[in-house]
Design goal:
Blueprint: H1 22-28, H2 34-37, H3 44-47, H4 51-67, H5 94-101, E1 106-112, H6 115-119, E2 134-141, E3 144-152, H7 158-163, H8 165-168, H9 171-177, H10 192-216, H11 220-241, H12 254-266, E4 269-272, E5 277-281, E6 288-293, E7 304-306, E8 318-320, H13 327-335
Parallel strand pairs: 7-8
Antiparallel strand pairs: 1-3, 2-3, 4-5, 5-6
Length: 369
């Protein structure tokens, strides 16, 4: 499957859009194309489109991706898979649909404060007023910090996910895999990584029902009915485990408080897995104190086996074995029928009990002479 580091689908290089099997190609590239592609991206606008409109939009996406102008990929809020609170308009052409559904143009602007000051995901007094744009850098000017952000023309609809019962039902499962992604099970969605992790959980529920239907020989109608039962069960249990925190409260429980402490720590200890760079910052000023790039581990040496003992070199991964080339001989011997085992000649000894010499002859025991 073709997905980038943020969990977004990327088009395969060999997609043939005028081929009659383009739907099958999309499935092989990682998209769920059931119901004519309605579940490839779980947004309202995408669900309102016809299959031909979806294919045309993806073809524009493929052409845009191949053009090389991919700066937008640095923004986690970019992508066709995020709900933006828009509905599909039949007057849209494929280019316009791609522009709107992917978030539109990314205007770059600057705002005073660190990203932690602007976003403050643990301060529920701010609620949805907290800044959810993508931070791409910061600078110092005197004693002030300014953060550079990307603002989408069609921003992500955070409230949609935070109040959607199916997405809320995924939070406890997401927390099992990513313990620090949410501020506890009652937190709201506040970044695209959470949404994509939740979508992955939902897709897992779908795949589980489809697998069961295939194993039991069930039809599509049964699978759809069973899937609705699974969704309803997840929603009902989610209402118990993932109930939203109340706004305005200083404490929403130990899970939230623990995550607050972790995020405050991460603000001045950052690790970039792509470059292997660890950055330590001053916890108050944000000034960089130290940067360290871990050495990239070399790829393992491929092991080969040789029959020439003189060419063997352990450091280069060449090992000597006198049996190289004898595979067929060894296998034929292993497959051969072993010789018959002769039957054992068993005899039964006759044992006669005798009186021990130290036993008085006048003392009798049955069976002993």
């Amino acid at each position: 499957m073709a997905y980038d580091i943020r969990g977004r689908w990327i088009p395969s290089e060999d997609l043939t859009w005028d081929a009659p099997n383009i739907q099958q190609q999309l499935v092989q590239s990682g998209l769920d194309w059931s119901a004519e592609g309605a579940y490839a991206f779980r947004t309202d606008a995408w669900g309102q489109m016809s299959e031909s409109q979806r294919l045309d939009t993806l073809q524009v996406y493929d052409a845009w991706y191949d053009s090389g102008f991919q700066k937008n990929l640095d923004d986690e809020n970019w992508g066709l898979d995020l709900e933006r609170g828009v509905t599909y308009n039949n007057s849209w052409d494929a280019q316009t649909a791609f522009h709107i559904l992917s978030g539109g143009g990314g205007a770059i602007y600057e705002e005073e404060g660190t990203i932690g000051d602007l976003r403050v995901p643990w301060d529920y007094d701010k609620g949805e007023g907290a800044n959810r744009d993508t931070a791409i850098g910061s600078r110092k000017e005197g004693d002030k910090t300014y953060t550079t952000l990307i603002k989408r023309e069609y921003p992500m609809d955070w409230k949609h996910y935070s109040t959607d019962e199916l997405y809320r039902a995924t939070i406890d499962e997401v927390n099992e895999k990513f313990p620090d992604l949410f501020l506890g099970s009652g937190a709201d969605f506040d970044n695209a990584t959470q949404v994509r992790a939740a979508s992955d959980v939902i897709q897992g529920w779908v795949d589980g029902v489809r697998k069961q239907a295939k194993e039991e020989g069930r039809d599509n109608a049964w699978a759809q009915a069973e899937l609705q039962k699974v969704f309803q069960w997840q929603i009902d249990t989610g209402k118990m485990y993932n109930q939203r925190y109340d706004y305005g409260q200083n404490t929403q429980g130990p899970d939230r408080n623990q995550q607050v402490a972790i995020r405050k720590y991460k603000a001045w200890n950052h690790f970039d897995p792509e470059t292997g760079t660890r950055t330590t910052k001053h916890p108050l000023t944000g000034a960089i104190r130290d940067e360290f790039t871990h050495k990239i581990v070399a790829q393992p040496t491929r092991m080969t086996v040789t029959s020439d003992i003189n060419s063997a070199n352990i450091d280069e991964g060449r090992f000597y074995s006198p049996t190289v080339g004898d595979e067929s001989k060894i296998m034929s011997q292993m497959a051969g029928t072993p010789p018959d085992i002769s039957k054992p000649n068993l005899t039964i000894r006759t044992v006669k009990n005798k009186r021990p010499e130290n036993i008085d002859n006048n003392w009798t025991v049955h069976g002993v002479e």
